[in-house]
């Protein structure tokens, strides 16, 4: 006998578990199906983000930053450290503890909101009279009128070079290396590649980044990307752009990568480990979409409209498995919006104000359009920048790299984009998101009193600089 629900969510990552909780808050009977397992085989909801993505990577980034500060920056503060030693096992244990806390937190939230959780893989069985039947491994089938697909994405492998998570690593293996590699190769200078490269570089690896594109961080504002390239290269990341990857061979103790550089010269590099970070693919494996006629697009994503509706009535999809940026917070917003649409409300996601963050050091964060996008669109704009070098709090922190940059409409002064590279950019960008949601002008931010001394004063000063009236630079 199938268990009946109003809403069944397949996938317990950021989009899925949030959709399930919001739907339950709105009075629906809800089930969430998720197959992630912890090391003991128990449930580990939270998807890639919690288990092998956002959360564990930030834990290691924080730990590795502390280690680097202890070895290189503390002396300037009058703190002498002798006998500095890396305990990688403890660092990983801390990371795993944080992951489990997040897993357990989601299970608690399900219980609190009366969401029924099934630990297994969900797949379509049939559709009849407006009701969908879903199979669950090791459990009875479930039925529901509404189904939300939130199955996330998988790391994309290089053709002919599958991940073994020992020598050829995806994000999963990159977070679980047991000893600091002497030489680490990273193919792909995207978010994951740079973050993981940064972790192991701080811990002592000699890191080489190989990027096929001729430009560094092409999605980032060009001025910010150039600053990032300069700072990361200075830190010790060897960044090679415009490369063409050739043969990759593995041996007992390492990996050899043959590649041509931008000038066409041939190279052969040997690494202890190789991280491949060339994007991610939608995870629809095992969903049995054919059973109900669910439409996928030409790239394998679940095809949806602007409201996350699929081609099937009352079947929705959110997060990495659909179009748009593969960001956990984008998935969460879509999950909330879909739950509210199921309830007849007007859920809304503004793709123009979704913030992006790269958790390197310095952090990079932005929202809205870049200067090159505005130029391409023929939009008349004004720009204002302010360096952290002139910010009192940044000086006190000992972290004065980077800047804040505002882009505003030349006529109306409406903020069109804000780009930050510098300390805690991930937190500072929130003010810009709020401002853009409320259609604020650069003048609005320039007129708001910001606490002193604070890093947020750089945001105010950059807004002032749009009108060429920065006060401290």
UniProtKB/TrEMBL annotation:
Claim: Flavoprotein is one of the keywords in the record: yes
Entry cofactors: FAD
Name of the protein: Dihydrolipoyl dehydrogenase
Leftover remarks: The active site is a redox-active disulfide bond.
S-S bridge residues: 49-54
Catalytic activity: N(6)-[(R)-dihydrolipoyl]-L-lysyl-[protein] + NAD(+) = N(6)-[(R)-lipoyl]-L-lysyl-[protein] + NADH + H(+)
Annotated binding of NAD(+), by residue: 188-195, 211, 279
Record gene name: lpdA
Pyridine nucleotide-disulphide oxidoreductase dimerisation domain mapped to chain residues: 354-463
Record's subcellular location: Cytoplasm
Keywords assigned: Cytoplasm, FAD, Flavoprotein, NAD, Nucleotide-binding, Oxidoreductase, Redox-active center
One annotated Gene Ontology cellular component of this protein: cytoplasm
Family annotation (InterPro entries): Class-I_Pyr_Nuc-Dis_Oxidored (IPR050151), FAD/NAD-bd_sf (IPR036188), FAD/NAD-binding_dom (IPR023753), FAD/NAD-linked_Rdtase_dimer_sf (IPR016156), Lipoamide_DH (IPR006258), Pyr_nuc-diS_OxRdtase (IPR001100), Pyr_nucl-diS_OxRdtase_dimer (IPR004099)
Family, per entry: Belongs to the class-I pyridine nucleotide-disulfide oxidoreductase family.
Taxonomic source organism: Sapientia aquatica
FAD/NAD(P)-binding domain segment(s): 5-335
Pfam families: Pyr_redox_2, Pyr_redox_dim
Source organism phylogeny: Bacteria, Pseudomonadati, Pseudomonadota, Betaproteobacteria, Burkholderiales
Active-site residue numbers: 452
Residues that, per the record, bind FAD: 58, 122, 151-153, 320, 326-329
Enzyme Commission number(s): 1.8.1.4
EC main group: oxidoreductase
GO molecular function: dihydrolipoyl dehydrogenase (NADH) activity; flavin adenine dinucleotide binding
Cofactor note: Binds 1 FAD per subunit.
Domain of life: Bacteria
GO biological process, alphabetically ordered: 2-oxoglutarate metabolic process
């Amino acid at each position: 006998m199938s268990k009946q629900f109003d809403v069944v969510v397949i996938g317990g990552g950021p989009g899925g578990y949030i959709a399930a909780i919001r739907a339950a808050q709105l009075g629906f009977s809800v089930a969430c199906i998720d197959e992630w397992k912890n090391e003991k085989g128990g449930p580990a909801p939270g998807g890639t983000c919690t288990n092998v993505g956002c959360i564990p990577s930030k834990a290691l980034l924080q730990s590795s930053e502390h280690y680097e500060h202890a070895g290189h920056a503390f002396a300037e503060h009058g703190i002498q450290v002798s006998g500095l030693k890396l305990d990688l096992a403890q660092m990983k244990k801390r990371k795993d503890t944080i992951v489990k806390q997040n897993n357990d937190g989601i299970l608690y939230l399900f219980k609190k909101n009366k969401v029924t959780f099934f630990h297994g893989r969900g797949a379509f069985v049939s559709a009849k009279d407006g009701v969908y039947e879903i199979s669950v491994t090791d459990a009875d089938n479930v039925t529901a009128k509404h189904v939300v697909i939130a199955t996330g994405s998988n790391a994309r492998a290089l053709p002919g070079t599958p991940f073994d998570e020992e020598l050829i690593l995806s994000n999963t293996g990159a977070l679980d290396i047991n000893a600091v590699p002497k030489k680490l190769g990273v193919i792909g200078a995207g978010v994951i590649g740079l973050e993981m490269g940064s972790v192991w570089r701080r811990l002592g690896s000699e890191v080489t980044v190989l990027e096929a594109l001729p430009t560094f961080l092409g999605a980032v504002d060009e001025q910010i990307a150039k600053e990032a390239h300069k700072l990361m290269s200075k830190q010790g990341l060897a960044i090679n752009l415009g490369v063409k990857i050739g043969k990759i061979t593995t041996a007992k103790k390492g990996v050899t990568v043959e590649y041509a550089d931008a000038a066409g010269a041939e190279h052969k590099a040997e690494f202890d480990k190789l991280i491949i970070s060339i994007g991610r693919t939608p995870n629809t494996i095992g969903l049995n979409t054919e059973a109900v006629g669910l439409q996928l697009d030409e790239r394998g994503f679940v095809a949806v409209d602007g409201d996350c509706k699929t081609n099937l009535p009352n079947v929705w999809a959110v997060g990495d498995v659909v179009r748009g940026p593969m960001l956990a917070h984008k998935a969460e917003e879509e999950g909330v919006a879909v739950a509210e649409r199921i309830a007849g409300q007007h859920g809304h996601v503004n793709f123009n104000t979704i913030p992006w963050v790269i958790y390197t050091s310095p952090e990079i964060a932005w929202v809205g359009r870049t200067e090159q996008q505005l130029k391409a669109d023929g939009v008349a704009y004004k720009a204002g920048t302010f360096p952290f070098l002139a910010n009192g709090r940044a000086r006190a922190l000992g972290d004065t790299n980077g800047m804040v940059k505002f882009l505003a409409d030349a006529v109306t002064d409406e903020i069109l984009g804000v780009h930050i590279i510098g300390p805690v950019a991930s937190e500072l960008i929130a003010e810009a998101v709020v401002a853009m949601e409320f259609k604020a002008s650069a003048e609005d931010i320039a007129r708001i009193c910001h606490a002193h001394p604070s890093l947020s004063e750089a945001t105010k000063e950059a807004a002032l600089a749009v009108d060429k009236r920065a006060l401290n630079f």
